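Blinded run. Sample ID left blank on purpose so nobody reads anything into the name before looking at the predicted structure. Input follows.
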Amino acid sequence: MRLTTVRTDDGTRAALLVENDAVLLPWANVGVVLTDAYREGKLWQDLVGAASTGPRLEPSALDFAPVVPHPGKIVCVGLNYTKHIQEMGRELPEFPTLFAKYPESLIGSADSIALPPESAAVDWEAELALVIGTRIRRATATQSAEAIAGFTILNDVTMRDWQYRSPMWLQGKTFEASSPFGPALVSPDELPGGVRPALTISTDVDGERMQEAVTDDLVFDPPALVEYVSTIMTLNPGDVIATGTPGGVGHARKPARYLSAGQTMTTTVEHLGQLVNEAVAERC
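Blinded prediction complete.
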């Protein structure tokens, strides 16, 4: 089952069930669906199935918002693909490397990426993102797997010159309106590998392939990340964990390559869809 969040003509948002067509649901966005399902003690698939009697919309005409517009947490994982770690000249980590993004950084799957005038090194990072469906703390391995509501795509667009101003990465990772997120939340049962999906992930810039890998190259898989992060803090419905990026980032190329105004970045994850985003100079 697939859910998405769209912008409506009256300036609000709405959750949709997207199968052969798109069905309008009685929730403001996907995050609210997950929260209500948790409160009612139901799987979100069952809650949505009982409510999928709304108007049908044409999927090609949808204006996608970030699939969860305002996650309470966006926890990101650095250096989690074996080949990317080797590309960056590092050793395989014993523990996940964690940092955060904030909701202001998120854009929809077809929105423009804002290139800030303060950065000359805007880089791409295709990521498989998981979304939490329950409240959980200190999860066991079994509980961690059960807590994953589904998967979507996030590109952790990074301002490298700001990232490396200090040992802490945050300032280069959460520039406003920079990170496409969506287009849909897909339940694990639709994916090969379920909560440990083996999916081809890629980034293209103006049609040139920059990144390509399979998500089973992760050092720490999705349930392991949920288990680890939930040891630190309570995870709630709608919280997001971005699982890391594979090799092929622009900063590691020689010479380095970065996004410039007018270029189109396409982020694809098998079975999850695409993010297609033009880079534009931010209006200040």
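Unblinding after everyone has recorded impressions. The longest strand covers residues 273-281.
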